[in-house]
Structures are given as C-alpha cells and as structure tokens.
Specification:
Elements lengths: L2 H7 L4 E2 L6 E3 L4 E7 L2 E9 L5 E5 L4 E5 L9 H18 L2
Antiparallel strand pairs: 1-2, 2-3, 3-4, 4-5, 5-6
Length: 94
C-alpha cells in the first residue's frame, strides 16, 4: 500500500459537528484523548460492539481491542474510556 495513501487516509476529510475533537479520514476516526501532558492524538478504526484498532502516534503504539459489548449503549465510548483511563497511563509510565 503506498505510504502517500496511508497518510491521506489519516488526514481529516470531514468534521463531526456534534462531537468536538472528532474528525474523520478515510475509514479512520481522528480524535483527541486526554493524556498526561494534555491532548493526545488517537486514530481509530471502529467496528461493531466496541471493537477497535487504534494508533497512538505519541507512544508509537497500536492497540487492538476486541469486545463483546454488542448490547451496550455507546460501546465505542466504553472502549475509549478504557484506552484513556487504563492504557494511556500504562504507556506513559516510565
């Protein structure tokens, strides 16, 4: 896959009017998560039930989350909460 296409897919192509800090690339959600030193860029592909593949460029990390939150309300927010509250602090720890 050409690197230029990957870069283009991770660039904002649409803004979400009702969700501040969220933009959309080519099948990627581009968002800001709270980090230990302010806002943290996260790029995510999200699937059914809260499943997600996320890139955290500041930590040179890729996270793959598989869940079974199919009947939960807002399952992707549960995934984001887990990433922000558990995974980011673990990555930031010395």
């Amino acid at each position: 896959m050409p690197s230029a296409w990957v870069q283009a897919s991770l660039a904002p192509s649409a803004e979400m009017e009702d969700q501040e800090g969220f933009e959309y690339g080519y099948l990627w959600w581009l968002m800001q998560l709270p980090g230990p030193e302010g806002k943290l860029l996260a790029q995510a592909m999200n699937g059914r039930g809260g499943n997600s593949v996320q890139i955290l460029p500041d930590y040179d990390a890729v996270i793959v989350m598989t869940t079974t939150n199919f009947n939960a309300r807002q399952p992707h927010l549960l995934t984001l909460k887990l990433v922000a509250e558990q995974i980011v602090p673990a990555l930031a720890a010395p």
